[in-house]
């Protein structure tokens, strides 16, 4: 049974609008979903960044477990189990990258994109300065929901283009989320943190901030691998605009 079903319905509707907006407004958003001629640089860097993001997120997960051990040991055990389940999934993506010529040394020596640092910092800020895992758990629900509703299509296309054997790691990651109903689990944990209207509103704020950071990531990824800009740049105004 879904806890707080009305709020979940509201949150899911927001996430559905994000998915629609993403495909309509972000450059190259549908590339891995639809393209028959894959930009391999884009694909490689996206998977490298996924690994770097997973490695940094597990540090924030440890902070969440520490928080729960002090206020809700039942959720501490639950989140520890979930973290254990996800802890080494970077290896799944690394195995896929090895099949397209990317070594582990190349992966782990790569400097994360600015957007990755900002997203990680946003989640860690909640733990370190607000003493709350609300941003983190909201972000995880965001990822679990969006992943299970977008990645199967992406992987079907990538399997056709690269060969199904070359996306086995990413497929295993998504199948774990689907088979174990991770979005339902994360919602149950998130619900334990929402005890007031103010906290409900805070979840909506986090969703919008997290989506903004995800859009920033895909824009930065496109700039780096497709346009060829070496770092994130905001165009300066012209004299007429200044």
Number of DSSP helical runs: 11
Name the helicity range. Answer: over 70%
Rounded average pLDDT: 92
| Major β-sheet annotation | none
Give the beta-strand count: 0
First CA to last CA: what distance?
Answer: 55 Å
Structural class given helices, strands, pairing?
mainly alpha
List the uncertain runs.
238-242
How large a portion of the residues is in β-strands, by DSSP E? under 5%
- N-to-C series of helices and strands: HHHHHHHHHHH
Report Rg: 18 Å
Give the overall shape, derived from the CA principal axes. Answer: globular
Task: Give your account of this protein's structure.
It is a single chain. With 242 residues, this protein is mainly alpha-helical. It is 76% helix and 0% strand. It has eleven helices and no strands. The chain has helices at 5-25, 31-34, 40-71, 73-86, 90-98, 104-108, 114-129, 134-162, 168-179, 182-192, 197-227. α3 (40-71) runs antiparallel to α11 (197-227), α5 (90-98) packs antiparallel against α9 and α8 (134-162) runs antiparallel to α10. The longest helix is centred in the first third of the chain and has 32 residues, at 40-71. The protein is globular, with a radius of gyration of 18 Å. The termini are far apart.
């Amino acid at each position: 049974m879904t806890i707080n079903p009305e709020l979940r319905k509201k949150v899911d509707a927001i996430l559905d609008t994000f998915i629609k907006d993403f495909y309509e407004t972000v450059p190259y958003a549908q590339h891995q979903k639809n393209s028959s001629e894959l930009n391999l640089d884009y694909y490689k860097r996206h998977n490298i960044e996924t690994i770097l993001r997973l490695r940094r997120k597990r540090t924030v997960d440890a902070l969440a477990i520490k928080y729960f051990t002090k206020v809700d040991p039942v959720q501490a055990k639950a989140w520890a189990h979930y973290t254990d389940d996800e802890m080494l999934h970077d290896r799944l993506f690394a195995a896929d990258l090895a099949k397209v010529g990317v070594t582990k040394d190349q992966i782990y020596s790569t400097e994360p994109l600015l957007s990755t640092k900002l997203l990680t910092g946003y989640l860690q800020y909640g733990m370190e300065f607000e003493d709350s895992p609300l941003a983190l758990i909201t972000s995880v629900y965001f990822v679990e929901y969006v992943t299970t509703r977008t990645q199967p299509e992406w992987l079907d296309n990538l399997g056709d283009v690269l060969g199904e054997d070359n996306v086995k790691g990413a497929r295993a990651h998504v199948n774990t989320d689907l088979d174990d109903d991770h979005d339902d689990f994360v919602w149950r944990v998130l619900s334990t943190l929402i005890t007031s209207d103010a906290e409900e509103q805070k979840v909506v704020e986090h969703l919008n901030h997290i989506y903004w950071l995800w859009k920033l990531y895909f824009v930065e990824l496109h700039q780096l691998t497709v346009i060829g800009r070496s770092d994130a740049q905001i165009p300066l105004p012209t004299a007429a605009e200044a």
